[in-house]
Design brief:
The complex is a heterodimer of chains A (298) and B (310). Chain A has 298 residues and is mainly α. Chain A contains eleven helices and no strands. The longest helix of chain A is centred in the middle third of the chain and has 33 residues. The radius of gyration of chain A is 24 Å and the shape is globular. Chain B has 310 residues and is of the alpha/beta class. The two termini of chain B are 15 Å apart. Classes of the chains: A mainly alpha (298), B alpha/beta (310). Chains A and B meet through α1 and α5 of A and α2, α3 and α4 of B.
Chain lengths: 298, 310
């Protein structure tokens, strides 16, 4: 290594304290910075190595089947006729991965700020409580959306490479992406609301899993018992309103004409009700979250 | 009673804050100028409540508070852009490194990404965190954590910083370091400081002015110099005959108190030292020590109450 002649090596100049005269972003810029920071946090980026294991493991779980299906479609497309991939059912079929993702990452997004007492530091800056809630909702929703939408995109690319009918596949994939928006909005709203009630990450994880998974298990088994066992299919179909997964599935089947991944289909004429309830649950969870943060003690 | 040397950075007028069943601040009126100002009071005196009102995080029941000329009740976001805050309690995420955390907090104060990184490196160096800044905060000592807490409050180069009990939990050496650092925030960085503490002794070393509150009421607001002059005392210890020495000092015209074998003499002026020396020497008694006595918080509170009553 050559040394520059002029500057003597190993001299540290203490230039003292320097003020800051540069630009300062306003509230919207800060909110966006909190959004990007939290979105990175949803995938464990900028956190310890351990924090990355679960989110990236689940990304792998979500992507692997899509990659395999896409490969089969591409290879199989050269051999004989291949059906359109089931874009809209994909999220429902791999829903356990999204449950775990939301259950682990929602507390990561909000409970830690309460457990470590970091919230007062945010509030001692220009951000308002509402800004904080908006940024956190956007971040988790964005993260869950990426988790669900990326495999749908892979399936679609596979179909395009296999030269399946473009119009039909584009429409189906497009509707499925819209479905992914609903999935991510609802799961994130419910997950964040539950997580915001506890500063203990373990409680948050357990409570979210319970609400998302147990409600699905109970509704599905009741649908099975009442629908198939007692023959009351119409009544059993309405039970789908009571768990996030069957609710979203009902909306997709009705609105996008997607195949169902639930035990029972939506009863005739129930579609608009399912959509309305979906929007109410999403809006309600956001409103409750905002109310929760208006009250939270600093 | 206004006292600061320059324009007031904080103006509090008739400020009252009532919680259900408790009055945290009771018609508090005080002005704070530039420099380092101590906010002294026992635990529960209303110090933290006052800081939260000044940050615009908590509304006052009645009265006005202005920070840097802005109304705390209505201009909170603008105030918070220009002030820093170091809370009393733990507020650091254990799973992030100091660098990542302080960069994030700089971004939360509105600094663009590059500026946030530069200012973080500078600020962590100024508070005395070096190689350890890349390790997760969870493994830090209390002293290091306090430095990170201070750094996040300074990283956006505020005009004024609120420090709530900055020496909490520190050992004597860490305490001295922190106090020196607080002094430098004003002298070197040019940032005004309001530092809340229940320990007057440590504040008088670093503050230009002191505001004493108790149960939400202003006991006293004055410069530290005034404070010290008012309550200067000498502790005198002699080898024997302390009662006779005490009598002799009283006869020589000095105000004294006896605390066991220790004689505490009120200093009237420079002659007091000579009188003590001569009186003791005339009685053929040896002097073990003569040292200036710093007031204790209890005396100040007692004195303050007397002032208010007067």
């Amino acid at each position: 290594m050559s040394q520059p002649d002029a500057a003597p090596a190993g001299v540290i100049h203490d230039i003292g304290y320097r003020g800051y005269q540069g630009d300062r972003l306003g509230r919207s810029g800060i909110r966006f910075a909190l959004f990007t920071h939290s979105l990175r946090g949803v995938f464990g980026l900028g956190r310890s190595g351990r924090s990355k294991v679960i989110p990236f493991g689940l990304v792998g779980v979500m992507l692997l089947p899509a990659v395999i299906i896409a490969a089969i479609v591409i290879i199989g497309g050269g051999v004989g006729p291949v059906s359109t991939p089931a874009y809209a059912q994909y999220a429902g079929q791999l829903t356990a991965a999204t449950w775990i993702f939301v259950a682990v990452q929602a507390p990561q997004a909000v409970s830690l700020d309460m457990r470590f007492g970091t919230l007062p530091l945010y509030m001692s800056r220009p951000l308002t409580r509402g800004d904080y809630v908006v940024a956190k909702i956007a971040a988790l929703t964005g993260g869950v959306f990426l988790l669900i939408a990326t495999p749908i995109l892979i399936l679609y690319l596979g179909a395009v490479f296999a030269e399946l009918p473009l119009g039909e596949n584009s429409a189906a994939a497009g509707w499925a992406i819209l479905g992914a928006v609903l999935y991510s909005a609802m799961f994130s709203g419910i997950g964040l609301l539950i997580a915001s009630l506890t500063s203990r990450r373990g409680f948050g994880i357990a409570a979210i899993i319970t609400v998302l998974a147990l409600s699905y298990v109970i509704v599905s088994s009741m649908q099975g018992a009442i629908g198939h066992g007692m023959g009351e299919e119409r009544l059993a179909g309405w039970l789908g309103l009571f768990s996030p997964n069957t609710l979203l599935d009902g909306v997709q089947v009705w609105a996008f004409d997607a195949g169902s991944s639930s035990v029972l289909p939506v009863p005739d004429g129930a579609g608009p009700v399912f959509l309305l309830v979906t929007l109410l649950v999403i809006g309600g969870s956001y409103a409750a979250l905002a109310a929760r943060y208006r009250k939270v003690r600093l | 009673m206004p006292y600061g040397r320059c324009v007031p950075v904080i103006e509090i007028d008739n400020l009252t804050k009532q919680f259900p069943g408790v009055t945290a601040l009771d018609r508090l009126t005080v002005e704070v100028g530039t420099g380092v100002t101590g906010l002294v009071g026992a635990n529960g005196a209303g110090k933290s409540t006052l800081i939260k009102i000044l940050l615009g995080l908590s509304g006052a029941t009645s009265g006005d508070a202005r920070v840097l000329g802005m109304d705390a009740a209505t201009e909170g976001p603008t105030i918070r852009q220009r002030v820093g805050y170091m809370p009393e309690h733990d507020c650091l995420p254990g799973d992030m490194s100091a660098t990542e955390f302080v960069v994030h907090m700089a971004r939360m104060s509105g600094l663009p990404p590059n500026a946030a990184r530069e200012r973080t490196a500078d600020t962590l160096r100024h508070v005395g965190l070096y190689e350890e800044r890349y390790r997760p905060i969870g493994g830090y000592s209390t002293g290091m954590k306090q430095r990170v807490k201070l750094a996040q409050g300074l990283v956006h180069d505020p005009e004024l910083v609120f420090l709530d009990e900055p020496t909490n939990g520190l050992d004597p050496v860490g305490r001295d370091d922190m106090l020196d650092l607080i002094r430098r925030i004003h002298t070197e960085f040019g940032i005004s400081v309001l530092v809340a503490s229940h320990l007057l002794g440590e504040l008088e070393r670093i503050c230009d002015n002191v505001v004493v509150i108790d149960a939400g009421v202003l006991l006293r607001a004055s410069s530290v110099a005034e404070f010290t002059r008012a309550s200067e005392q000498l502790a005198v210890e002699v080898t024997a005959d302390w009662d006779e020495v005490a009598d002799g000092l009283v006869q020589a015209g000095l105000g004294i108190e006896q605390e066991g074998h220790l004689i505490v003499v009120n200093v009237a002026d420079d002659i007091t030292y000579d009188i003590v020396r001569d009186t003791v020497a005339d009685m053929n008694v040896g002097i073990v020590r003569i040292e200036p006595r710093r007031h204790r918080i209890a005396e100040v509170f007692a004195g303050g109450e007397a002032d208010v009553a007067a």
